[in-house]
Amino acid sequence: MSTSIADARTVEVAPGVHAYLQPDGGWFINNCGFLVGDDGVVLVDSAATEARTTALRRAIAAVTPLPVRVLVNTHWHTDHTNGNSQFEGAVVVTHDAARAPMLELVPTRPDPHGPFPAVAWGRLGRTRPDLTVTDSLTLWAGDLRCEVRGVGGPAHTVGDLVAWIPEHGVLFAGDLAFNGQAPLMSAGSISGSLRVLAELRDLGPAVVVPGHGELCGPEVFQTEIDYLTFVLECAERGRKDGRTPLETARSLGPHPFDHLADAERIVANLHRAYAELDGALPGAEIDLTATRLDMMALNGGKALTCHA
User: Fold this and answer.
1) CA dist., res. 41 & res. 282, Å (int)
2) Distance between start and end Cα atoms, the chain
3) What confidence tens digit (pLDDT) does each residue in 68-117 have?
4) Which residue in 81, 142, 146, 260 is deepest, having the highest Cβ count within 10 Å?
5) Sign of CA dihedral 187, 190, 193, 197
6) Does an H or E element contain 229, and which?
7) Is the distance from CB of 5 to CB of 51 less than 8 angstroms?
8) Looking at beta carbons, which pairs linking 124-128 to residues 24 or more positions away fall under 8 Å?
9) What is the tens place of the pLDDT at every residue in 195-222?
């Protein structure tokens, strides 16, 4: 599938509710969405680079001349937050636990020795979240109700939000939903994700806008539950046999989830599973540099594939 910025598209998934989809959904190619009200727009997430965020702004302008008044970040990861500063004047809403890492780590800093050395990030400014949520917050886009809900993680990260449009059954799931890609829980929790994903599945949304990949339904959460259950089983065997997470990942051979894009993420998830099996609390810090190096090792020693 193409990864050109020009291939991004806007889909009206319900009246006044738009998904902005960026193929192919791989590393740093995320989805966003926006709700059009009477006097402004509620935006769910920005994009990873200056160019991709500029394209997002143009896509919104093609639908409505109204300004973005509220920007909800589903979590702090920089593919969803790097472009925040292009929406000057918008009230930035995120999870309370996401505010500190956003202040420290957003935007992405180019690293020629990191896993994504070739990405043209562009000019990215800092953004200070204005409003934080732990449980829930109701936003209104005209008469359209948007429930911003903390999922009670840690799950994908220590501070995840979803945006739920109950009138139309539309769920903006952020990176709690990877459709067609391997999920990534190294900065969150395997056990917490299994609980949260089951709750989102049981919510029964008619449409899920995943953080990465094409539009889908609640079946995406069951796929992720099955994947993370497999990861946990592999971690238990590998740990018992005295293997490192990388050795365990290399020992797997063909498995039911090796068709998912960005398959090297399995070693990062194994790092998280090992930590929790060793008694770490959900969301406790682990060495994310080690997870990135092991993903690159599993990728043949090369930088990770990223067309952002």
Assistant:
1) 35
2) 14
3) 999 999 999 999 999 999 999 999 999 999 999 999 999 998 888 889 99
4) 81
5) positive
6) helix 219-240
7) yes
8) 124/49, 124/50, 124/82, 124/83, 124/85, 125/84, 125/85, 125/86, 126/85, 127/81, 127/84, 127/85, 127/92, 127/102, 128/92, 128/103
9) 999 999 999 999 999 999 999 999 999 9
Task: Report the side by side order of strands in the sheet with 41-44.
Answer: 9-14, 17-21, 32-36, 41-44, 68-72, 91-95, 131-133
Cα-Cα-Cα-Cα dihedral sign, residues 83, 87, 88, 92: negative
List the Cα angle 207/259/257 in 5-degree steps.
80
Q: 154 Cβ partners below 8 Å, 6+ apart? A: 160, 188, 189, 192, 282, 283
**pLDDT tier at 172 (50, 70, 90 boundaries)?**
very high
* Residue 95 dihedral angles phi and psi, to the nearest 5°: -70, 145
Q: Is the pLDDT of residue 2 over 70?
A: no
Q: Identify the burial level of 55 via C-beta atoms within 10 angstroms of its C-beta, where 0-12 means exposed, 13-18 middle and 19 or more buried.
A: middle
Residues 165, 256: contact at Cβ < 8 Å?
no
Sign of CA dihedral 183, 186, 188, 193: positive
Residue 226 confidence (pLDDT): 98
Share of the chain above pLDDT 70, in %: 99
Asked if the model's pLDDT at residue 230 lies above 80, the reply is yes
Backbone angles phi, psi at 124, to 5 degrees: -125, 125
Please answer whether residues 200 and 162 qualify as being in contact, where contact means their C-beta atoms are separated by less than 8 angstroms: yes
Per residue in 247-263, pLDDT (tens digit) is 999 999 999 999 999 99
Assigned token pair, 19: 């998904």
Written as one letter, the residue type at 172 is F
